[in-house]
Amino acid sequence: MDSYLAELDDLLDKIRKHPGMYLMYQHSGNPAFFSLVDYLNGMNRQSGFLSGLEEWLIPRVGYGDNLTWAGLMMLLIFPESESPCDFIRSDEDAAEIAFRRTLELLREFLGVKYSRNGPTKIHVEYHAWLKKQAWYDETSPQWIPEM
Question: CB–CB of 73/102 below 8 Å?
Fold first, then answer.
């Protein structure tokens, strides 16, 4: 798995350095966050490398278990914005920040995921977050009874 992580890390570095080789650009000339999301989702369909990302992001955001990983990224990157997606569409600097921070957070996630017991750590942290939610009980789809 170390070589797989190295390959992913190398690819993310190439995307960061030369986004135009991998992604479409917005009209403003900034790498399109949404193109990055589409590219990563396409890769994920092939490899499943993003599995666990939402569970890793949710405790960091503090809510949003009904959102996609991309929506959670936006909330984490722009916590003060009421509509992060509209914000990055209208602000050139925000689009660049969203692009760069997404790649940074993804690298951080992959480092955790592919570490020793990484997926277990991610799911234990997510489950601890779930247990703190008032709505989480035996009727919840993700319910795990105490052992």
Answer: yes
